[in-house]
Amino acid sequence: MRPFIRGNVAIRGAAGSDAAVIAEAHVQAWQDAYRGILPAIVLSGFTVASRLEQWRRTLSDEDNGQDAFVAEASGVGIIGFASAGPQRGDASRFMGEIYTLYVLAAWQRRGIGTALLGILSRALERRGRSSASLWVLKDNSQARLFYERHGGVVVAERLERFGQAQVLELAYGWDDVRTMGRGASKRA
User: Fold this and answer.
1) Per-residue DSSP letter, 185
2) HSE (CB half, 13 Å, CA atoms) of 45?
């Protein structure tokens, strides 16, 4: 897939050599997104070491059916990332699932999340996954608004445990991945 370029930001497929930087960005974005939603003890347990192992596995296995992308800003490095692949469970009526989509707080509201969502939709479609879902914490109102602006509809809910915290998650779904990341009325 050709890299997406807008201004000083380029989006490209993630490579194995990106694992450490993605892990760092993942922890920062996760802690920023869930501060005030999840207890501090849970946030502090989400470490670069644990994410590094996950990203090494994801990026080293070319046969896992997943696609991962990074958004890079000139002179800054990775400022966002996203991944998707086959559906993993609870929203099984959908063929694909978005596993991650994060943009660092300082880079949000510039269209980077929308661009990543659009690239994920094309990657899912290319792999024959015409529908997709994702899970988001119910209390993460910013993310929920983003997905709703991009055509996502709540299709399921579940209780999820993060350490000692139990939180409600909502599944957003798209019956047609071609509608994701297109035609949004506001940038996210």
Assistant:
1) S
2) 9
Which residue in this structure is represented by tokens 């080293």?
A: 60
pLDDT digits (tens, 9 = 90+) for 32-60: 999 999 988 888 888 999 899 989 988 98
Please, are residues 32 and 105 in contact by the beta-carbon 8 Å criterion? yes
Over range 106-119, report the average pLDDT.
93
What φ, ψ does residue 143 adopt, rounded to 5°? -65, -40
Q: Contact, 107 vs 155, CB < 8 A? A: no
d(CA 172, CA 132) in angstroms, rounded, equals 8
Q: What is the biggest distance separating any 2 CA atoms in the chain, rounded to whole angstroms? A: 43
* Distance, CA of 8 to chain centre: 21
* Paired sense of beta strands 96-103 and 132-137, if any: parallel
Residue-by-residue DSSP string for 36-84: TTB-HHHHHHS-HHHHHHHHHHHHH-TTS--EEEEEEETTTEEEEEEEE
Confidence check: pLDDT of 92 > 80: no
Q: How far apart are CA 104 and CA 26, in angstroms?
A: 9
List, in order, residues 6 or more apart from 40 with CB less than 8 Å away.
none
For the four alpha carbons of 117, 122, 127 and 132, in that order, the dihedral sign comes to positive
Nearest-angstrom CA–CA distance, 181 and 188: 10
Which pairing describes strands 77-86 and 67-73: parallel, antiparallel, or unpaired? Answer: antiparallel
Residue 91's pLDDT is: 59
